[in-house]
Design goal:
With 305 residues, the protein is mainly beta. Among the domains are: 88 residues, Jelly Rolls, CATH 2.60.120; 86 residues, Jelly Rolls. It is built from no helices and 22 strands. A five-stranded mixed β-sheet has the order 7-9-11-14-15, with no helix packed on it. It has a four-stranded mixed β-sheet with strand order 3-4-6-5, with no helix packed on it. It is rod-shaped, with a radius of gyration of 36 Å.
Amino acid sequence: MALLPFGSAPTPNATTSKLGKIMLAGDLAGTASSPTVSAINGITVTGTPTSGQVLTATSGTAADWATPTSGGSQTPWTSNISGAGYSLSDVSTITTNSTLTAGGANTSNGGVVHKVTSISANYSALTTDSLIVSAAFTTLNLTLPTTGVTSGQIIQIIAGVDASLTIAAASGDVAGQTSILLTAGNTLSVVWNGATWLAVGMTFFPFGTTTHPNAGLGEIGTTSVTSGTAVQPFQLSDSMCYINTTSAGTLSLQIGPTSSPTTYLYDAVAMGIGYPISFRLPASWYVLFTLSTGMTMSSLTFVQT
């Protein structure tokens, strides 16, 4: 029998309301001077965690630290999120410095905020650009990227009310054109299909320089004319085209859906200087002028109808 000092009493067992001694059993292990937690509610926990790992049950009585695969709300959102089963119902803001991809139908109950890039000098667009706005007073050149672009990426372009934008790609074309003249106040949306930029929408406003009596709302732009070379004005719909002779001579004019148009509007017709020509051109059709030696023409202006 142990003898206690006079006036002392044995340490009582701990309770929920009093300090006391406990036994290193159940969820506790180690020593009296260095106790450890070896289990949680009887579930044995083993291993040492590394960055990004979460506690994962390996059976009904054991758990270990492991890197999550897919599914489950326990996945740390520090890099890519993939797989099914994620719920973002409680997430108000997602910030990413890379690409956020969402499959299936996606519904937004609020506004979509785009990154706005305002330019006042010639500009080579980045793959991170979303909305490009010209704030210049002179015509600028805008070059769209063709490397590192994700298929399906859309870039919206706005020409300011004071000047036009000449839009081209770093390589290849834009909507089948070597370049597009977006006149002041107009907008163009293009999408990358993995190989080239395609036009998906254009909006017109009554701004910009008018180069013919009927120009105004819906003006697309102008293109130069070379005798014997077919041109395809950029147009999403049928257009009215206007051009004048700037010297006298004989002119033939053909239009058609291919780069070798066969439909004659004028066939070797003699014209004087300043003769106005206007015609309707179906969407995406080509125009071919054949001029006699020394004859010249103004630029061809085309207007959406």
